Automatic annotation (TrEMBL), chain A:
It comes from the Bacteria. NCBIfam families: TAT_signal_seq. PROSITE patterns: PROKAR_LIPOPROTEIN, TAT. Pfam families: MoCoBD_1 (PF02738), MoCoBD_2 (PF20256). The chain crosses the membrane at residues 12-32. PANTHER family: ALDEHYDE DEHYDROGENASE. InterPro entries: Ald_Oxase/Xan_DH_a/b (IPR000674), AldOxase/xan_DH_MoCoBD1 (IPR008274), AldOxase/xan_DH_MoCoBD2 (IPR046867), AldOxase/xan_DH_Mopterin-bd_sf (IPR037165), N-heterocyclic_Hydroxylase (IPR052516), OxRdtase_Mopterin-bd_su_IorB (IPR012368), TAT_signal (IPR006311), TAT_signal_bac_arc (IPR019546). The keyword Signal does not apply. This is Isoquinoline 1-oxidoreductase beta subunit. It comes from Mariniradius saccharolyticus AK6. Signal peptide: none annotated.
Automatic annotation (TrEMBL), chain B:
The keyword Transmembrane does not apply. It comes from the Bacteria. GO terms for molecular function: 2 iron, 2 sulfur cluster binding; metal ion binding; oxidoreductase activity. Residues 2-78 form the 2Fe-2S ferredoxin-type domain. This is Isoquinoline 1-oxidoreductase alpha subunit.
Length: 753, 152
């Protein structure tokens, strides 16, 4: 066994206590949300004993594990408890899993995003499991009067071989809960894992397929009211006035009032991105009635002047953020981006003498790639339940980032932090959108005003048109070649509205002697934020499409070409701070080459390859396109992934398949445009999403087997899809695709999807 | 407001609502049957799919006044114990990610199989085309429909 030489993070291990009568700790809020009642499950113990924040054991050996992070579909609610169960050395079939509510004193980093849940939870969860196991062993040692080191555990049972003494965990739980928490605990060796690395089904699967209430939108309490919002019709507009009497006579309508999310003196945090900080709330007796009133409310909007607010910095300092005025259009966005492409950007990295090398070049290849704004379109629209009475608040809603919205709630409600309970709902999708949780503040303000419980639901139109979008981006790549087609220099200049997608220290930085990276950005009043693999989700497609075209120009196989560059980066890296491990990067390319039989092409199949590193994981993908009825159809996708140890392989494959489908959908169809500040698509009748018939027939997700600590999985399979599709379409149609989405161009070529 | 007597999941239920109220909101707000989901309100995503006399329909655009004596089945009433072959196949293939679209997917799939127990690939695509899964679980949905067809 490996001993963890690091001291336990004591913060998450409050004093252990034996709990009587069902074992619910009253200071916990488990009962407050809409939790499944444990009584429904079989084999419930009479008493629970809490060994630490994450683990309770019943006298009959049942185990309850708390999943700390909010669940948005990446299945952390199954995989995080698997890590606990592994080190606890219990039997998975005796495990009940519960969603923990927001409780930062007890749980580490309750944040779902950046594909960091498993990576950052790995050590704390293993430690929590191992600590509980150590307490049970210590209790058995004391009871049996033997040495703890002579006691073994397996599948929830303790054994002292020499004396033949045996017990299940439940028999030792009450004593274990009173013992001193050890400072150091041994962790299992990877080769003795029994649960990690085996596929376990989604712990909420049965509830999902039977339609049980799982989401905040399903929540209801006695006396609850319903609310909807009326928001400005366009970015750059704000509320001027509204006529309450236009709807107060309507059936079921109780009240109409404006709400304002931020107090004057509040310094916003980075996740306080709020589309419209002042909106009108309509409260009534049912969702349908408030939605009807929404259509009828007489409101006057006006153009918003330029404004600014204070933004709190990470280190405690503040800065001023400015929101420009104006009603923006996609056409003018494109024109401005075209201007910036011609101008010099800010140099972010320079290796060697790129300018000199370009001067000497026999040939320069230059290509520009663009992509539009994207809406997240989680299937469950933004919504939230809130119950605010006096100086107490309970907020139950879909959020990826409860910690970041807590301060916003405190300032908006004027209620101290300790009186606000945030309960974590299962989310009907996140993709980054629910890192910005102002829907929770809106619901809380409405509830505070009416002093009654309320459920706020965005219509799909609200959700799509008041988004925190993926920005529009552009990237221009240039490569300098000598007369023998040797690569002399590489130049990337990338920008967007309102941020650059550039990761200057990523591949191929480090692999080319003369390298230049420049960034630019254009301010905007359109709100943007994290979207599955932020920035990578565009720059990967641009970079990997360019490398494909460059390989062709140089007369090289696209996989061989990348491997050559990676060899250089591995053996003799250029520059410093290269943000990737060239060997692991090459590893996924080699694996995908093998699994897709890259070297044995099939007739009538057009293949494209792409590889990318982000969120600490490496992914390579091969996309196969065939022409059917004169249309290119993505038929198969092969993905090779290095994300270290895979906790739950089948669920990991599911996530990978989903990311690939998401990538194909956005590559072909994803697009949000603006007309005088207003999003031109407001519902799924216009915003084209990938459908079942457009998904590939086959997606194979292969994992590199190694013993590296686990890293991100929810995001890294997404970015490489775009270029693998574009490169495959090039083979199929003879045309390169520089502008996302691709479907309209294919249609113009009369090669309809 | 008007009183409607509805036959839902084999039980008769009464609601007093605006006749224009879509069945979706009657189920969710008035009858606490929240398994049926809101996704778009314009029959473009399939999240709200229920069965009306055995056929898959979008409850978000169906006024309660149009139901009459037809039989409504929701995800809660698809099977007594969550053991409809489609539900079992969904578990076997561990289809859901976020899970939000899945009730609608299951209702579309179960209606397809009750009318066409041996669907071709194309039949599945056509029947399920109206159901968006933002998480992209389409391959597993298709595999689960095929498994369910075998176990009908
Ligand atoms: S909610 Fe009915 S189809 Fe989308
Ligand atoms: S499982 Fe999330 S939308 Fe389908």
């Amino acid at each position: 066994m490996a001993t963890l030489d690091k001291k336990l993070d004591r913060r998450s291990f409050l004093k252990v206590s034996a709990l009587a009568g069902g074992g619910m700790v009253l200071s916990f809020s488990w009962l407050a949300g809409c939790k499944p009642t444990e009584e429904e499950m079989i084999g419930l113990p009479k008493e629970w004993f809490e060994l630490n924040s994450y683990i309770k054991i019943g006298e009959n050996g049942a185990v309850t594990l708390y999943s700390p992070n909010p669940e948005f579909g990446s299945n952390v609610k199954t995989s995080m408890p698997m890590i606990l169960a592994e080190e606890l050395d219990t039997d998975w079939k005796n495990v009940f899993v519960e969603q923990a509510d927001f409780f930062p004193q007890r749980f580490d980093r309750q944040f779902t995003g950046g594909s960091q849940g498993i990576r950052q939870g790995w050590t704390p969860l293993r430690t929590a499991g191992a600590t509980a196991r150590a307490l049970l062993v210590a209790a058995a040692a004391q009871t049996w009067n033997v040495l703890a080191s002579e006691i073994t555990t397996a599948a929830g049972k303790l054994e002292h071989k020499a004396s033949g003494k045996k017990a299940h965990y439940g028999e030792m739980a009450s004593l274990a809960a009173t013992l001193e928490v050890p400072e150091e605990v041994p962790l299992k060796e990877i080769k003795s894992f029994k649960i990690i690395g085996t596929s376990k089904r989604n712990v909420d699967g049965e509830k999902i397929v039977t339609g049980k209430p799982l989401f905040a939108i399903d929540h209801k309490v006695e006396g609850m009211k319903y609310a909807a919002l009326v928001m400005p019709p366009a970015f750059g507009m704000r509320l001027k006035s509204f006529d309450k009497s236009s709807v107060t006579g309507m059936s079921g309508i109780m009240d109409v009032f404006p709400i304002s999310l931020f107090k004057e003196d509040y310094a916003r945090n980075f996740f306080d991105t709020t589309t419209f900080p002042e909106v009108v709330a309509i409260v009534g007796n049912s969702t349908w009635e408030v939605m009807q009133a929404k259509k009828n409310l007489n409101v006057e909007w006006e153009k918003a002047p330029e404004s600014s607010f204070t933004l709190a910095g990470r280190g405690g300092g503040t800065s001023t953020a400015t929101i420009p005025s104006g009603l923006e259009n996609t056409l003018s966005h494109k024109a401005r981006m075209a201007e910036y492409i011609q101008k010099p950007g800010n140099v972010v990295r320079r290796d060697g003498d790129p300018e000199g090398a370009f001067k000497k070049a026999a040939k320069v290849l230059e290509r520009t790639y663009t992509a539009p704004f994207l809406a997240h379109n989680t299937m469950e629209p933004m919504n939230c339940f809130a119950d605010v009475k006096g100086d107490k608040a309970v907020v139950y809603g879909p959020t990826q980032a409860p910690e970041f919205i807590m301060g916003t709630l405190v300032q908006a409600l004027g209620i101290p932090r300790e009186n606000i309970q945030i309960n974590l709902a299962r989310m009907g999708g996140g993709f980054g959108r629910r890192a910005y949780s102002h829907h929770m503040v809106e619901a809380a303000l409405i509830s505070q005003k009416i002093q009654a419980p309320v459920k706020l639901v965005y219509t799909r139109e609200d959700d799509m048109s008041a988004g925190v979008y993926r920005p529009t981006y552009s990237a221009t790549y240039r490569a300098a070649l000598d007369e023998n087609n040797n690569l002399l220099a590489f130049h990337v200049k990338a920008g967007g509205i309102p941020e650059t997608p550039l990761h200057a220290n990523r591949f191929p930085a480090g692999a080319i002697d003369n390298y230049l990276a420049e960034a630019w950005d254009i301010p905007s009043n359109i709100t943007i934020g994290a979207f599955r693999a932020p920035r990578s989700n565009f720059i990967a497609g641009a970079e990997q499409s360019f490398l494909d075209e460059l390989a062709e120009e140089m007369g090289k196989d696209p996989i061989e070409f990348r491997l050559e560059l990676l060899k250089r980066a591995e053996t003799n890296p250029v520059g410093e701070n290269n943000d990737y491990d060239a060997k692991r990067y090459a590893g996924v390319l080699e694996l995908v080459r093998e699994k897709s039989n890259w070297n044995t092409p099939q007739a009538n199949v057009s293949r494209g390859v792409s590889a990318y590193f982000c969120h600490n994981s490496y992914v390579a993908e091969v996309v196969d396109t065939v022409i059917k009825d004169n249309q290119p159809v993505v038929e198969s996708v092969y993905a090779a992934v290095d994300c270290g140890i895979v906790i739950n392989p089948d669920a990991a494959r599911n996530m990978g398949e989903g990311a690939v489908v998401d990538g194909i959908g956005n590559a072909f169809f994803g697009e949000l445009t603006f007309d005088n500040g207003a999003p031109s698509k407001r519902n799924f009748d216009k915003y084209r999403m990938i459908r079942i018939g457009e998904a590939p027939k086959k997606i194979e997700v292969h994992f590199v087997e190694n013993n590296e600590d686990p890293t991100g999985l929810g995001e890294p399979l997404f970015p490489p899809v775009f270029a693998a599709v574009a490169n495959s379409l090039y083979k199929a149609t003879g045309k390169r695709y520089y502008e996302q989405p691709f479907a309209p161009q294919l249609e113009m070529q009369n090669l309809r999807m | 407001m008007a009183i409607f007597n509805l036959n839902i999941n084999g039980k008769s239920m009464q609601v007093d609502v605006d006749p224009a109220t879509p069945v979706l909101w009657v189920l969710r707000d008035h009858l606490d049957l929240v398994g049926t989901k809101y996704g778009c309100g314009v029959a473009a995503c399939g999240a709200c799919t229920i069965h009306l006399d055995g056929n898959a329909v979008r409850s978000c655009v169906m006024p309660v006044s149009s139901v009459g004596g037809s039989k409504i089945t929701t995800i809660e009433g698809l099977s007594e114990n969550g053991d409809h072959p489609v539900q079992k196949a969904w578990l076997e293939h561990d289809v859901p990610q976020c899970g939000y679209c899945q009730a609608g997917q299951i209702m579309s799939a179960s209606a397809l199989l009750s009318n066409n127990p041996n669907p071709s690939e194309e039949d599945i695509d056509n029947a399920m085309n109206g159901n968006i899964c933002r998480c992209g679980t389409y391959l597993r949905i298709k595999a689960a429909v095929k498994t369910a067809a075998q176990n009908l």
